[in-house]
Amino acid sequence: MNRLLLSATLLIAGHFSVRAGAQPPAEYEVKAAFIYNFAKYIAWPAPDAGRPLVVGVIGKDPFGRVLDDAMRGRTVQNRKIVVRRFTRVDDVANCDILFVASSETRNLPRILSTLRNAPVVTIGDMDQFAERGGMINLTMNRDRVQFEINVDALTRAGLKAGSPLLRLARIVKEPRMESK
């Protein structure tokens, strides 16, 4: 299993070349590569013809230029990828993927409530993001990026993760609300 995870991580982050003596990719370079690869394994409802796949960031952007560089010139499912930044949740309705920065921890319930049934893949890297209703949480374990998926949140939004993605993820569930 460890060998499979290592191989998948190398494939996912593979577009970052590391030459002898060069620095390994930084955390957010790897996370940008993960986001790109997530897009390849998510099935969205049929988009408008010619509409780009929009990857958005809300809050204080931890990526800087890294996300733009990772997505530049790329396409997924015959859709050109564009990156946009947002400061207000009301502006993210046309996103396909939204990275919720940790600066938005206090606003997370409102963001997830607003997007609850929208076909927007929500990705974060904060504690218990997926358990709180986010779809994909990027986590660090021994200096390696791993991820968790909340399949219920994806399904509720009319999205489906491909089996290669699900095999590599840790599947998490939202806590069940007790009946009163």
> Helix/strand/pairing class, anyone?
alpha/beta
Point out poorly predicted stretches: 1-20
> CATH class, please?
Alpha Beta
Shape: globular
How many domains? The number is 1
Main pleated-sheet profile: 8 strands, mixed
Give the SSE order as H and E letters: HHEEHEEEHEEEHEHE
Description:
This protein is α/β, with parallel strands linked by helices. The protein has one domain: Rossmann fold (3-Layer(aba) Sandwich). Helices cover 28% and strands 23% of the residues. It has 6 helices and 10 strands; from the N terminus they run H-H-E-E-H-E-E-E-H-E-E-E-H-E-H-E. It has helices spanning 2-12, 27-40, 65-71, 108-114, 151-156, 163-168; strands spanning 42-43, 53-58, 75-76, 79-86, 97-100, 121-124, 136-141, 144-149, 160-161, 170-171. The strands form 2 sheets. Strands 3-4-2-5-6-7-8-10 form an 8-stranded mixed β-sheet. Strand 7 (136-141) and strand 8 (144-149) form a beta hairpin. Helix 2 packs parallel to helix 3. The longest helix has 14 residues, at 27-40. The chain is globular, with a radius of gyration of 16 Å. It starts with a helix and ends in a 9-residue tail after the last strand.
